[in-house]
Model the fold of this input.
Amino acid sequence: MSLRPFTSESYSEDDRPEAWRDVLSSIGLQPTAATTTHHGHATAVRRTFEGVALAKLSAGAQAISPLSDLASDHPLVLLPLEDGVALKTAAGHQIVAAGHLLLLPRKGDWTVAFQRDMRAVVLSVTSDPLHSRRASAPAIADVQIVGPGGFGDVFARMMEQAARNLETLSDAEWLAIAQGLADLLPTFTRPLAEPMADLNSGTATKAATLHRLCQTIERRLDDADLTPAKVAQAEGISERYLQKLFEGTGSSFTHYLRERRLQRTWADLSNPSEAHHSISEIAFRAGFNDSAHFSRTFRHRFGLSPREFRQNEAERLTASATAVGQRGWPQEALAQLRSQHAPPTAGKIAQPEPAATITHGIAEASKNQRHHHLAADASRVHWGYFSRSLPPQIEINSGDTITIETLTQHASDDPERMIKGDIGAESVFRWTRDQKNVDRRGAGPMDASIYGRGAGEGFGVHICTGPVAIRDAQPGDVLEIRILDIVPRASRNPDFDGQIFGSSVAAWWGYHYKEFLAEQNAREAVTIYEILDHDDEPYARALYSYRWEPQTDPFGTVHNTYDYPGIPITPASVRRRHDVLDGIRIPLRPHFGVIAVAPREADLVDSVPPAYFGGNLDNWRLGKGSTVYLPVSVPGALLSVGDPHAAQGDGELGGTAIECSMTGTFQVVLHKKGNLAGQVFADLTYPLIETESDWVLMGFSHPNYLAEFGAKGQSEVYATSSLDLAMKDAFRKMRRFLMNIKGLTEDEAIALMSVAVDFGVTQVVDGNWGVHAILSKRVFDHTSKS
Done:
């Protein structure tokens, strides 16, 4: 009962196409010639038993076709999990919505093209006996499509749920499912399946013409006044001939157009990534210019109103999502998402300051190097999210240095010490009954329609300064960020002038939260620290702590838990406890929890779960003198920095570090894609940290959750992360590093990892859990290998 997980993170860029071809061939598929060079991120989970194979596939855009040398009487069953799938046969073309089953003959002349991302479940049943029985082969000679509803819906959900749980099913459970799927498959006889429009009728010329007509209609669905005459004119045929072509399929132009528009709206209403569009917008975009007419037509076709259908889809997705109150995007929020950005308030671009003399830690000083300064205020920060659409606050050249002021989102835990008198902090945190300077706090809906917590809903919490654009940076390049200096931001309040403070929260998202001993009721506790520099041994000491009590924000919303960033805490609202951690000195490890470039996959990305683009790494090794390498995904890279920490242990168990506003000075070096060969950061698809003594590779439960899970990624990552997955990813990356960068064989790499590589838990609180692998540079001091 073979279980075979696959991730492209195990392979170098050059080896990925062949590895992915092997995955597809194991289930009777192959990439078409146009996609044999697929190099992107891909994952797959396959489980087999005596001729039954079920696979969940996730990869980039590509097209697949049947593997000609695999004989079987049974069709392949393919279930698209997201829209953007096109079915092509020798005679025609059809768009297939998510949730529809494709029954694909093994020797047919067909291609399935995933136009955006490949996200699908595939069932392969060969003609081999199953428990000494041979299932009767379904009588399917041509491609068939089975729409939602009835037996097809039952079978599709069985496939999807089985695929979701492939790695956790016991052998006995998988055996029962494999037998069930194989036994049920023959039920799909031709009369039960929804046939494609018959594009084979008539001559090949007629089929080709009808194909072009369908493509023209597809391109112009948004034209509410689209008529047969317009389409005929565009294709250079008579309207009468057009009507005859459609009549030959047993349909009509009007029926086909209406059905395509309804299918388009069905797909968009069920797609979480389209949730920021209203129902009226979706209908108008598909060519319906009358909302009432659209609603009636949709109900007649699908049995539900558009609003009811969208709500049902949201609830269906929510059933497997995270619990209410969890960080991340719940599917209810996705279904009601409002995508307005919180614009950098003034929209101004910070101007470079005159070059300053900064020499420590710079290995490649340039005569043209300039120094820049990016202050933290409401116009220069984005709070709780990353976005490829954010306008840069400044553009710098490779080799330039830049000082970036960063603020902790926890400064409001003690506003008197960490905000009052600080013009920049007051600008960012200003929130009164009449005004909130930075409205969007998180990547959720702007109208706070789910939990009512506030704009952005707090799905993402970090105050990030930037972004900074790097001139000439393009996808495929590598960005090197050298941390030259870190300076804590002192209090500007005259009562605490010059003192430095931070906050740590043992919060509801902490690993400890359901493991209390002293009390049955869970609680959250905030500890305020002072940062001291005595006798050249800087440390933090606790000043006081308090239990979180329900807080009412300036807009009148009550927050029973620490669920929304920046809620101002007044001293009278909590009971302070002094003499906590009495006599204990906590050594400092100043670092930035968040260093990120913009991800490519989505427009608004929760700042909490880290991934290949960096983000909320929360690794204390990102301190002064260290370097982090990140793969560039969007033009300009769009570098953001935030979440400054004074101290943190590996694991960040309770929820946060000692969060303390800090200012960092960085040198940013761009390495172009064509010049990466021979470098330690060649073939980089993950954050790589370099310290004076070590290489630190960052592993995550899901190395690219945005690509792996698609539209549901920002919820799914919270629901499925584990240390086991993160450890596997760290192992795979270190094996790849040792083999492809250091030139070891696989056996050598594994042997070395066991005796010389330290694996540590980075964090278990950021949705996408982290395990890092530390390799000492001394290991290779006496070898000729690079």
